TrEMBL record:
Entry keywords, A to Z: ATP-binding, Cell membrane, Membrane, Nucleotide-binding, Transport
SMART domains in the record: AAA
UniProt cross-references to PANTHER family, sorted A to Z: ABC TRANSPORTER ATP-BINDING PROTEIN (PTHR45772:SF3), CONSERVED COMPONENT OF ABC TRANSPORTER FOR NATURAL AMINO ACIDS-RELATED (PTHR45772)
Designated name of the protein: ABC transporter-related protein
Annotated SUPFAM superfamilies: P-loop containing nucleoside triphosphate hydrolases
Domain of life: Bacteria
Annotated Gene Ontology cellular component terms: plasma membrane
Amino acid sequence: MTQDLILETRGLTKEFKGFAAVSDVNLRVQRGHIHALIGPNGAGKTTVFNLLTKFLQPSRGTITFNGHDISHEEPAQIARRGVIRSFQISATFGHMTAMENVRVALQRKLGTSFHFWRPEASLHGLNARALELLEAVDLASYARTLAAEMPYGRKRALEIATTLALDPELMLLDEPTQGMGHEDVDRVVELIRKVSANRTVLMVEHNLSVVETLSDRITVLQRGQILAEGGYAEVSQDPRVLEAYVGVEA
Ligand SMILES: Nc1ncnc2c1ncn2[C@@H]1O[C@H](COP(=O)(O)OP(=O)(O)O)[C@@H](O)[C@H]1O
Ligand SMILES: [Mg+2]
């Protein structure tokens, strides 16, 4: 089987004082996929994200992105390569309007790529691109609204817009629908589907119906290790997965 892997970890391990939060994880994410990372609380999902973006240093193992070993790179280098984590790196500023938030993100992207002479770096170009991004997440009508005054679900959409402004090749979403009501969940699902068209998405998501709707592939973590992997139909019927989830519910 030919696989075009955008991201691969080998033996990825993170120990906190001898406790392995992530243990020998071989994660393989195929380019163009929406790949979900699921598992009970404490399974190590957020730690994996922190390792991928180098907010944490791995204790052992390697991380390869687009064929480059990025295991020893700094968070900023990894972001420049196009690995962007939403809701952390791209948190929004409450005292700025939706438009200003997206513009700041666009300026950051231009700042790191040194293409300041390009036409899109002009004030007009920035505004036009910012508006395009707001339209892409269905927020054009909020352009002049302060982020702090936006409803919760819309604010998460703004966070996705600011992440998109950085033009990620691999977008990491940590619980994109967390704390949302049904309508906002549906909206964000559509949004993720739309923005994933020409990029790869790796997401941690607790809402299994969202996982079912969106994922091309799912990796299930338990106690820091990969428990199962596959499509939703396969993984959701795996007795070990059911037990892992039921075990936690009980
Ligand atoms: N900085 C840390 N120091 C010590 N233990 C940690 C730290 N971060 C996470 N852990 C532990 O690692 C395990 C995995 O945590 P986490 O990655 O947050 O899980 P998940 O996101 O799947 O709920 C948990 O047992 C957690 O308590
Ligand atoms: Mg977590």
